[in-house]
């Protein structure tokens, strides 16, 4: 068992060979109970846990999550640009995966981001909105804002939707 400090709470992660091993991880990340069956065998991913991403809303059309600045900064003491992209890709990929549905999965094929302003403390909120939800492609725009609602960055991700093997 690996123990990771996320914000002010302690989150225990276990291996993915234990049935229901990720129940605590999913609950700590804010994943709604009705989605635990979908993610129960995989969890939210080690990077999501490390970054402290916490989901507030989840659907193919709109997914919202927060991420702390603390622990995700670059050498100048501001939120790392890559952290913005991690939050954006996480939200877009989860949304696309929900749209793909049972027996299918989403694979990111393109992501880009523009950074508008920096942030040195507090929480960042990412709001992911569907631009296109098709049979083979899903594209989402993700806007990261600070507590005052100021836009920090804008990202776009396109995911290829594929059938599961086997």
From TrEMBL:
Boundaries of every Thioesterase domain copy: 77-151
Domain of life: Bacteria
Protein name: Thioesterase domain-containing protein
Claim: Hydrolase is one of the keywords in the record: yes
Record bears the keyword Hydrolase: yes
Alphabetical UniProt keywords: Hydrolase
Lineage: Bacteria, Bacillati, Actinomycetota, Actinomycetes, Micrococcales
NCBIfam families associated with the record: unchar_dom_1
InterPro entries on file: HotDog_dom_sf (IPR029069), PAAI_dom (IPR003736), Thioestr_dom (IPR006683)
Family: Belongs to the thioesterase PaaI family.
């Amino acid at each position: 068992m690996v123990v990771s400090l996320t914000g002010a709470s302690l989150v225990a992660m276990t291996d993915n060979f234990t049935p229901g091993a990720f129940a605590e991880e999913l609950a700590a990340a804010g994943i709604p109970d009705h989605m635990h069956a979908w993610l129960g065998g995989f969890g939210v991913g080690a990077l999501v846990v490390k970054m402290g991403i916490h989901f507030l809303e989840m659907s193919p059309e709109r997914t919202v999550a927060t991420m702390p600045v603390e622990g995700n900064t670059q050498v100048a003491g501001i939120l790392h640009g890559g952290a913005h992209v991690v939050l954006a890709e996480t939200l877009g990929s989860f949304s696309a995966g929900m749209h793909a549905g049972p027996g299918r999965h989403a694979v990111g094929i393109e992501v880009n981001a523009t950074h508008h302003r920096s942030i040195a403390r507090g929480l960042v909120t990412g709001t992911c909105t569907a631009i296109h939800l098709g049979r083979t492609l899903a594209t989402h725009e993700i806007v990261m804002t600070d507590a005052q609602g100021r836009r920090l960055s804008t990202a776009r991700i396109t995911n290829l939707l594929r059938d599961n093997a086997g």
